[in-house]
Design goal:
CATH topology of the largest domain: Rossmann fold
Order of helices and strands: EEEHHEHHEHEHEHHHH
CATH class of the largest domain: Alpha Beta
Number of domains: 2
Shape: globular
Radius of gyration: 17 Å
Largest sheet: 5 strands, parallel
Number of strands: 7
Amino acid sequence: MSNPTPHRAKQTSDGPALTSFSGKRRGPLITGFPVVLDACVLVNSTIRDFVLYAAHLALYRPIWSADILRELRATLSRFGIQADRVEYIVSQMSGAFPEACVDGYETLIGGMKNDPGDRHVLACAVVGKAQLIVTENLRHFPPTSLEPYHIEATNADDFLRDLLDIDRDRMLEVLTTIAETRKMPPRTIEELLEAVRANGCPGFAADMRAALERCYSDS
């Protein structure tokens, strides 16, 4: 990801439930609302770009912690990413969203009731007043552990689909911006959508294709 300057959006009240292009209804989301991004969502470069560029366009406010960034570093290293590249990725994220990293959550970790390995993520969400955790480890966040804090968990596919429901134009801007700026390797829009599908977000890839078709048909 390049180093955009994040925009801060005003938080609004809950809206009606949304319906995706697929017709599946999901819960309400709020433009500019705080969201914890688990390390597993940030590992893949394509999904990371879509998630963070959407935050750059103020569709939500990203939150993470030192522990989440530590996990991200460790996972990228295990995947064979060179240490200097790992630090570059983390520094770009931190520079683009300087207020994303929360602290003071450590004392809450022991009281969380979700999976022990991800209790730091839920504690981060509580301190950061997040309404949502985006993670691929949904089994580590059973609803009974989240309900006392009025927090929900979802995966990257449904999260990106909901962002597309909120603002088609801005998410199409995310797509075209990534296609224009991707250098390692460069990608066409179709190649990007195929990478999105192949990396765990098939519903979002399908919805984006439908959005592009509607956009072209409206023009």
